[in-house]
Amino acid sequence: MRAKDEVTKATLRSVLTSISKQEASGKQQSTLDEEQVIDVIRSELKKRHEAADIYASAGRDELAARERAEAEILTPYLPAQLDAEALGAIIAEEIDRARLSGNTGLKAMGPVIKSVRDRVGAQAEGSRVARAVKEALTEI
Prior knowledge:
Blueprint: H1 6-24, H2 34-57, H3 61-74, H4 84-100, H5 109-120, H6 126-139
C-alpha cells in the first residue's frame, strides 16, 4: 500500500469492505473463518471477471483492463486449484463409491458432487466440480 499502487490499494480495500459487510450481516456480528473469507474473495474475483467481460463486449477496453488487473491482484489470495488429473481421480473414486452404494448414472450426481466438494474444499470451484462430475457420469 505504501508503494502508491492505486489499483492494488482500491482492490484490497474493496475486498476488506466486502468481508466486513459479510461479518456484520445477520442478527449479530460474527467473525468469518478462513473458508468464509476465501468464499468472499472468490465471489469478488468472479465479479471482476464478469465485469471485465461486460466491459469488453461494450467496447470499454480500458475498464475491462482495470477489472482484469484487479482479478490478478486477488488471485494469489486464493488456494491453488487442483489440476484436471487430480480432480478427475477424486471424481472417479467417488463415482465408484456411489456405485457400490447403489447410485448409478445421473442419479448419483448429487451425492458424488457433495462428497467431491467435501474432499477438495476450496481447491476447486463448485461449478468446475459439477461440470467434471456430469461429464464423468455421462461417459459411463
